[in-house]
Amino acid sequence: MATKEFPLVPEDVPQVKTKYRTICTKIPVPESIELLKRLRELEPRSMGGQPPVIWHHGEGFTISDAYGNTWIDFSSGVLVTSSGHGREEIVKAITDMAKQRLYHAYCFPTEIRLRWVEKLTSILPAPLKRVFLLTTGSEATECCIKLARTWGMKVGGKEKNIIVSFDNAFHGRTMGAQLAGGIPALKNWLGDTNGKFVQVPFPDGFRQKDTSFEVFEKTLKEKGVNPDNVCGVISETFQGCNATIMPPEYAQALRKWCDEHKAVLIFDEIQAGFGRTGKWFGFQHLDVVPDLVACGKGIAGGMPVSAVLGTEELMNLYGPGEMTSTHSANPVCSAAGLANLEVLEKENLFDNVNRLAPVLSEGCRRIAEASGGKIGHWDSIGLVGALQFTKNGTTEPDPEPAWELVRRAVQRGVMLFAPVGVGGCAVKINPPLVINEEGLREGLEVLEQIVAEGV
Ligand SMILES: Cc1ncc(COP(=O)(O)O)c(C=O)c1O
Predict the structure, then answer these.
(1) N or C end: fewer C-beta atoms under 10 angstroms in the chain?
(2) Which residues of 83-107 are buried (b: 16+ CB within 10 A; e: fewer)?
(3) Dihedral of CA 90/91/96/98: which sign?
């Protein structure tokens, strides 16, 4: 995560004017400083660490402030605005629903909810069949964990409550809201144990060189875990802190292992889903289908929506009214979500992703080469790339140059969010999926120049 705050001191920076980028002020913009300072005063410190640019509006793969500056967006917010900023179709869907004067319908069905759920289920590979709409990614991953534990109780009793996840995995920031709550009826089903989370190494080939599935089994053994007490395994298809997809052989062995031990296989597709990797879902590169999928971010073009996708059996574990959420299937968000999926399909954005994937990958390679060894590892799949800065050819994170790259890229008209991942050393490159080759190459060249100048 961001390791420090960007200074709120306007700097003289070279002015930029290209087809896609304009930098015509000091950065940060002097007139924005008061506003940025007020946010720092009023919000928790955890909200700091954001690049000091006040977003005003977006258009396709560019983002602009109100002071005349425009950036090539390599952030998509945070892998959210996949179908592009300011999409007319999404603006229309939102405004039409608002004009219909329906912004909320919790506890009551709506037609738009049906239309969106129908669309979502139409893209699901069997045996995934049902969709449960929620609001945030964390809510979706917690829901998956809850379903896996409920399943464990059902098929194996209260000892079957262990969730296996992976080192460096990121599944959201809520802290098991249900366990923290104070309503005994919502917690007693856990019996006298709150269950356990056990981590195993993620087979990324960098921090974990041995990518064979034996490591999974060996680690559980070392940690004293009885495989039959595992109710679920949760993993991102590529870890949010980088862009290395789980090796297919590993995923297939994991699928088999879960079947053998009656454990629920959960994929967190909150970053990977909805075209980011060139397919609807990241797991479609792995030739496996999980039992539950957590989705969010790019599912609705920028509106706050998440979803759990799952099998009939798991999704029907709870009875009427027992698994709900106040903003579930908000009509305005549902309309935006439906429009977003229609745009992804209509414009063949997956084709664009697959066509541009080699350009991104080559760009990452060149940036890493230009770094003279400071980038210890890079990877990319589809339109997501990650550059990990590490110390002297080791795996030890080196956040300073990562942070410096972000700072200078923003000054030159390429929008990146603050570094993420292990020790805050990873710079992620994830433009909206509508980016064209010219814009992608231009942004990558800027990053290469900065790294070559020294960070
Ligand atoms: C892989 C992954 N899972 C879960 C989450 C949590 O989603 P949210 O921030 O919407 O709660 C994120 C967010 O960055 C993520 O990248």
Answers:
(1) N
(2) bbbebebbeebbeebeeeeeeeeee
(3) positive
The DSSP output letter for 207 is S
Structure tokens at 444: 């990558």
**Cα–Cα nearest to 61, from 356, 344, 434, 413:** 434
Closest CA to 118 of 403, 337, 435: 337
In which domain, by residue range, is 333 found?
89-346
Q: DSSP readout, 87-111?
A: -HHHHHHHHHHHHTT----TTS--H
Answer whether 238's CB lies under 8 Å from 279's CB: no
Cα(144) to centroid(ligand 1), Å: 13
266 CA distance to ligand 1 middle (Å): 14
Pocket of ligand 1 (CB under 6 A): 78, 136-138, 141, 170-172, 236, 240, 268, 270-271, 296
**How many structural domains is the chain composed of?**
2
The CATH number of the domain where 380 resides is what? 3.90.1150.10
What's the rounded Cα separation, in Å, for the pair 186 and 370? 55
Q: What is the pLDDT of residue 170?
A: 87
At which of 323, 346, 369 does a domain end?
Answer: 346
DSSP code for 437: H
CA gap 152, 149 in Å, rounded: 5
Our measurement of the distance from residue 431's CA atom to the centroid of its chain's CA atoms, rounded to an integer in Å, reads 13
Domain boundary among 285, 316, 346: 346
Q: Looking at the structure, tell me whether residues 162 and 222 fall in a common domain.
A: yes
**In-domain check, residue 5:** no
CATH of the domain at 163: 3.40.640.10
Claim to verify: residue 71 and residue 113 sit in the same structural domain: no
Distance, in Å, from the CA atom of 52 to the CA atom of 65, rounded to the nearest integer, reads 11
**Which portions of the chain are predicted below pLDDT 70?**
1-3, 176-180, 182, 184-195
pLDDT tens per residue, range 332-344: 999 999 999 999 9
